[in-house]
Amino acid sequence: MNENKSFIDRQPLLLQFFIFLFLMLGCTSIFTYASFILIKPLFGIDGADLLLKKATENADALKENINEINALKFIQLLTSVGTFLVPSILFGLAKNPGHDFLKLRSKTPLLFFFFSAAIIFLSAPIINEVYEWNKNFDFNSFGSFGIEMKNAEKQNQLLTNIFLFMPSFQDFMINILIVAVVPAVAEELFFRGVLQQLIKEASKSSHLAVWMTAVLFSAFHFDITGFIPRVLLGALLGYVFLWSGNLLVSMTGHFINNAAQVVLVYLFQTGNISYDASGDEPTPFYITVIFTLAMIATIYFFYKKRVMVKEEIPTTDSTIDSMMPPGENG
């Protein structure tokens, strides 16, 4: 049995983590460096370092030059692909050649995709409530570290607002790709597809794997004021993946979460709605209660349906590995 495993799969899990980390660092360096080189021929911009400095020191000034914003989006796109997408695919192929380690081909009821989209959509109000609580936390109690993280968060928020500046429909479509599609695919491959499954193998606990991955998912975003709500979002995506056994299902939820913000901001900027999703406008309390209760009900039906699907699966050796949700077999 052991001789049928790949070279990576035969290594201790700690070493597998380090191999994955090495792949991530290597791919990030290559793709980021490539983006710095390509912005000159593609956007006519000399010096990525000067552009990044301008973005951090005077982000509002970028609104005057949509070409510079697009150059930053291009850097963000290639960096995301290099950091999350490519190393995850390479590791998945190397760990289980010829098999579906990343759980992209598992047979899954179409209803699970609806459950995933509904859970993430309905979670938005309560996640926003937790965000408001997290944002008002006294980070000065962490000393200079807390102050630096808070200042960094302000700069990140300014840059995010610049990214969400969409004066044309073309800018809207670019943002759907960069803010919604690519992160949904790449980050789910990285966090749920690889990390959550590796942590499950190491800890033998599906729940620990979900929550540890959620913490790492939030930490990677370097957003201290949104740390706790993003942990909760990561946990929801983790359980969606765990119960469905198909990474495409959690990708769907992740896409809905990111795309909803882009759509709402675009509709606000074009004057079609009065609600500013990028602002601090609170969600009415009754909406939060209704959405949260509906989310809990959807999670319950998702879990029950998942149990029913498991019971319908023939428990033969040929179907166990391909049909069981990750973390539930063995």
Distance between the termini: 15 Å
The total count of strands amounts to: 0
Q: Quick one: biggest sheet?
A: none
Structural shape: globular
> Number of helical segments?
11
The residue-averaged pLDDT reads 87
- Tell me the β content: under 5%
Sheet/helix structural class? mainly alpha
Order of helices and strands, N to C? HHHHHHHHHHH
Overview features:
disordered C terminus; mainly alpha; 11 helices; 330 residues; 2 domains
Outline the structure in words.
The protein is mainly alpha-helical and 330 residues long. It contains 11 helices and no strands. The protein has 2 domains: 1-99, no CATH class; 105-330, no CATH class. The chain has helices at residues 13-43, 48-57, 66-95, 110-135, 144-163, 169-203, 206-219, 227-244, 247-269, 285-312, 317-323. 34% of the residues are buried. Residues 315-330 have low confidence and may be disordered.
